[in-house]
Amino acid sequence: MKIGIIGTGYVGLVTGVCLGKVLNNDIVCIDKVEEKINLLNNKQCPIFEPGLTKLLNSSDGGNIRFTTNYNELLDRDLIFLCVGTPQNDNGSTNYDYLISCMNDLADVIEPGTSTYIVIKSTAPVGSADILKSFIANKLESDRGLILGKDLNIHISSNPEFLKEGSAVEDFLNPSRIVIGTDDSESKNRLLKLYETYSDKCFCTDVKSAQLIKYASNAFLATKISFVNSLITYCEENNINLHDVTYGMGLDPRIGSSFLTPGPGYGGSCFPKDVASLSFEMEESAENYPDNCILKAVDTINEQAKMWPVYKIIDEFYDTDICLLKPIKVCVLGCAFKAYTDDVRCSSTITLIEQLFILNKNVQVSVYDPLANDNLASYFSDRNYNIEYTDNVYTAAENADVTVLMTPWPEFLALNYSKIKCFMSGNVFIDTRAMLNYDVMNSLFKYYALGKPQKN
Ligand code: UGA
């Protein structure tokens, strides 16, 4: 099929490359940012996603073109909207990028045609109607074209369930493909596109499809926050929370996934989607019963992010001067999870911001296998004393405390005796409780989130 993709971020690029190279379709990817398009036309990926560059450069599968020109969308069987839907200050979803796509489409679509638009971006219930009325108004006011008479536009929803770091893998092995349509031709086209995975397709209406996406992310976030809500209780009662979640997960009704306690969930999806669903639920009806679950999920997440900060305060707060001592903190990992270079809403950001609030004279050294540059650019306008290094042992030099933040598998293989020799202090905080408990306790004053403290 001829497929158009608008937006070449994580969602658009993975979708475009996989629909082209795995499912053999002819793809046109559009982005407004020319540098990105140039990079992609030179077969380079602007994002890190395992397996993506290889697929992009594969000679197998369908053709993929990258362009800034919306006219190239005119012959497409389906046009996917894959642009960002960031969070407004009040938690609601910002539609600016979606509206901008409709604006540009309205300039090029031709009378006498039917255009099949699919929202892949995570967008709230009701957004399809908003986009449709926007484009209808624009077509009428700019070009005198009446929707439904001079031309047709159908908007459907096909949310994505790809995880960063395993997005290609997830595309190849989908748990489900949700097809939300309000017209039969959109449904037929989407079913044809995904015929390889026909047993995984679930068809419903547009609004239900959109809510499936939000409810899924919010539910996974709820599982994480539920477990994180037990951290302090387990600490106070000397209970290993990891044993508790293991035991819970043995019940297939509960399942073992997304029960790992940690320093809060991050990334570009869970925090924003929990906030958006929470906002929409409260907006949708006056006197809506207090939306306590999603609010609690968010509050617990913010508390979980503070766990390493409180451990540092316990160890290094100077009560005489009411400030944190001017320590050096070595931070291992700043990506919000392993196998990505994404630092959006990463707990490492909270940790570093809090350290500099507690004493502007602290020193921080950061090592991450992929995400250092993104963290450096996030903090580029702050006057923080942060050293970014591509060597763990350099990062540990003269550190009073080392904090492991991102669960990169390579951290399992580090030489912690050597790290200790480089450090000037002996406190190690493992927010993922991923290191050998006995070895680490023999070397350091070791705090492992969710595990009882030994010394
Ligand atoms: C999430 C969903 O898992 C995808 O299904 C969805 O498509 C995607 O959002 C999206 O909406 O685009 P992602 O944000 O890439 O994917 O990351 P996850 O692997 O879900 O992890 C999110 C956060 O939860 C991370 O900070 C991770 O460390 C944390 N987490 C995860 C835990 O703290 N404990 C767990 O047991 C699992």
Structural class: alpha/beta
How does the major sheet shape up? 6 strands, parallel
Instruction: Enumerate the strands of the largest sheet in spatial order, edge to edge or round the barrel.
Output: 3-2-1-4-5-6
Rounded to an integer in angstroms, the radius of gyration calculated over CA atoms is 24 Å
| Number of distinct beta strands | 16
The fraction of residues assigned to DSSP E strands is 5-15%
Low-confidence stretches: none
Bound molecules: uridine-5'-diphosphate-glucuronic acid
| Distance between the amino and carboxyl termini | 63 Å
Give helix % range.
40-55%
Shape: elongated
Figure out the total of helices: 18
Overall pLDDT metric? 96
Structural commentary:
- The chain is an alpha/beta fold and 455 residues long.
- The chain is 41% helix and 15% strand.
- The chain has 18 helices and 16 strands.
- The protein has a 6-stranded parallel sheet, with helices on both faces.
- Helix 4 links the parallel strand 4 and strand 5.
- Helix 8 packs across helix 11 and helix 11 runs antiparallel to helix 12.
- The mean pLDDT is 96.
- The structure holds uridine-5'-diphosphate-glucuronic acid.
Topology:
Blueprint: E1 2-6, H1 10-21, E2 26-30, H2 34-41, H3 52-56, E3 64-67, E4 78-81, H4 96-108, E5 114-119, H5 127-143, E6 152-157, H6 167-172, E7 177-180, H7 184-193, E8 201-204, H8 206-228, H9 231-236, H10 241-249, H11 270-284, H12 292-305, H13 307-316, E9 317-318, E10 323-324, E11 328-332, H14 347-358, E12 363-367, H15 372-378, E13 386-389, H16 392-396, E14 401-404, H17 416-422, E15 427-430, H18 437-443, E16 445-448
Parallel strand pairs: 1-2, 1-4, 2-3, 4-5, 5-6, 7-8, 11-12, 11-14, 12-13, 14-15, 15-16
Antiparallel strand pairs: 9-10
Helix pairs in contact: 4-5, 8-11, 8-12, 11-12
Bound molecules: uridine-5'-diphosphate-glucuronic acid (UGA).
